[in-house]
Specification:
Blueprint lengths: L1 H21 L11 E7 L1 E2 L8 E2 L1 H14 L1 E2 L2 H10 L6 E8 L3 H13 L4 E5 L1 H5 L8 H8 L4 E5 L12 H19 L5 E3 L9 H7 L4 E3 L17 E2 L9 H16 L2
Parallel strand pairs: 1-5, 1-10, 2-3, 4-5, 5-6, 6-7, 8-9
The protein binds zinc ion.
């Protein structure tokens, strides 16, 4: 009975949100301060990987976000979170995990077309293996020199930090930073947890290696947000279906705004 009620409420909520969006009305306050960071993986057509979305869907999503929100760099959003300053805008950030070659081939030209900044989180040890589905160091260095692109660490070898010993977590956090800084000649101060898995020791270690923020793959952001576990909306095949994308974005922004009241 309660299960059915919950299911009905959810269906009703989705129906209502869909109607508002179809009329061009956003189901949350555009005046309220808020933010949302999206997390992409592969951007490629005909890829069965559940986190792969087509370049066409990606372009639709960027256009929608650029038309309705202020797309900012991750650094600007972290500054906004850390200072707690109110803005009258909803800030949106774009991130990519893992460093797939299709990001370079298909997503990058679309980011350039809409002049949208993005952050790429990569694993130096995986890049070293030179798999054809990942970017090479040459491609990474090329785009790292583009003004609107930033890079962050995704650990050394994409290991789930939550199951490692402290000394091994430290290696993942510190060595990945050193290698990326040497290769890219840029400061690496952002970290995305592989699989979104965090260990209680991580924050202290990230702070001691001068990272200023960490990102997970669960949307748990509220007023008391910790900059070392910032939640992101993970894009996948299901929430990229037209209408569902707008609803997923609306839901994420509304839940943050409601928690901030
Ligand atoms: Zn990953």
């Amino acid at each position: 009975m309660i299960k059915n009620l919950k299911k009905n409420c959810k269906t009703e909520y989705l129906r209502f949100t869909k109607i508002l969006l179809s009329k061009g009305i956003l189901p949350f306050s555009k005046k309220n301060n808020g933010f949302l960071i999206l997390n992409y993986h592969s951007v490629q057509k005909d890829n069965n990987y559940p986190f792969a979305i087509s370049p066409e869907d990606f372009e639709f999503q960027l256009r929608y976000l650029a038309n309705n929100f202020k797309i900012k760099t991750v650094a600007e959003i972290v500054e906004h979170i850390s200072t707690g300053k109110n803005t009258s805008d909803i800030l949106v950030g774009i991130t990519f995990d893992d460093g797939y070659i299709d990001n370079y081939k298909y997503a990058l030209p679309i980011l350039q077309k809409y002049n949208v900044p993005a952050m790429f989180f990569i694993n130096p040890n995986i890049i070293d293996l030179q798999y054809e589905s990942f970017m090479s160091w040459k491609e990474i260095i090329e785009i790292a020199n583009m003004e609107f692109i930033q890079f962050g660490s995704h650990g050394l070898s994409h290991l789930p930090l939550s199951v490692l010993q402290k000394k091994d977590i430290e290696i993942e956090i510190s060595k990945s930073k050193t290698i990326l800084e040497n290769r890219l000649k840029k400061d690496i101060i952002f970290f995305a947890f592989p699989f979104g898995m965090v260990h209680p020791e991580c924050q202290e270690l990230l702070e001691s290696y001068h990272y200023i923020a960490g990102f997970i793959t669960v949307l748990n952001n509220d007023k008391t947000i910790n900059p070392y576990t910032i939640g992101r909306l993970v894009m996948n095949k299901n929430n990229s279906i037209p209408n569902y994308f707008e609803i997923a974005v609306a839901k994420a922004i509304r839940s943050y705004q409601n928690s901030s009241l």
